[in-house]
Specification:
single chain, alpha+beta, six-stranded antiparallel sheet, two-stranded antiparallel ribbon, about 25% helix, elongated, disordered C terminus
């Protein structure tokens, strides 16, 4: 079938137009932390049905411009949090100095096929997995699953408790000399387990950053970090190293990897 090369105009949904109008109002009439008028007042002001208004408010909440608090109402959200993620700033593999990591658990199990392929090990090879939550100003902004082949840490001591296992894995990793790393970022949605750790509804948009670390010419760790898309913004320095900076802020220069 032939084409004319012309684009057909698609009518803008009512809620999307209202979202744009609400954004202008937010930027000019309200300040961070201020409570919006209730739905009845907003619907009357903008001449829309409350169902359309809810769609627009839901969209703005997903974008991180609004936050709902039970018993309080809908508030203007603070700008996205700046969270440096480069190894030089944070220490490897994420032993943050200025931000806190909270360990969820640490397990050692045979690698499933997909994980084995990603790590370059045989299927069924033992892999240590440390799960952590990253906190900034007491708020969860990311989860991380750090996978380390047991063969990469041959001198890992024994441990009595799960918390000792996690500390031992991280301590041994920090002693390795990293000679290469790569990162990729993609848009995703929070699965139920991640959403619970991030205190967000399942299906919320997230930024998934996968980082591979190499030492002595081989892959020694794979970190999969899931950042809240409504509170974090990923930016890239001139070197391509990923950083997270606040909206409107000038990105910090990234060190070469």
């Amino acid at each position: 079938m032939g084409t004319t090369g012309q684009l057909t105009a698609v009518p803008e949904p009512k809620y999307w137009h209202l979202r744009t109008v609400l954004l202008r109002a937010i930027d000019t009439e309200f300040s961070i932390g201020q409570i919006l008028p209730n739905e009845r007042e907003l619907a009357a002001r903008f001449g829309v049905a409350r169902a359309t208004l809810r769609q627009a408010l839901d969209q703005l909440e997903l974008e991180g411009r609004l936050v709902r608090r039970r018993g309080i109402g809908t508030l203007i959200a603070a700008p996205r949090v700046g969270v440096p993620v480069n190894r030089q700033e944070e220490g490897w593999p994420g032993a943050a100095r200025s931000q806190a990591w909270r360990t969820v658990d640490c397990t050692t199990a045979p690698a499933a096929r997909r994980l084995a392929e990603a790590l370059g090990v045989a299927e069924g090879a033992p892999v240590h997995t440390v799960r952590r939550v990253r906190l900034v100003q007491g708020r969860a902004v990311a989860t991380e699953s750090l996978h380390v082949p047991a063969a990469a840490l041959p001198h890992l001591p024994g441990f009595r408790a799960e918390s000792d296992r996690a500390r031992s894995v991280l301590r041994q990793l920090e002693r390795l000399e990293v000679d290469g790393e790569s990162r990729s970022v993609e848009l995703g949605v929070a699965e139920a387990e991640q959403a619970a750790l991030l205190e967000r509804p399942p299906g919320s948009p997230v930024l998934v950053m996968t980082t591979q670390y190499a030492a002595a010419g081989r892959l020694v760790a794979l970190a999969v970090s899931t950042y809240r898309a409504d509170t974090c913004k990923l930016t890239f320095g001139e070197t391509g190293l990923v950083e997270v900076t606040p909206v409107g802020a000038t990105p910090v220069g990234a060190a070469a990897s």
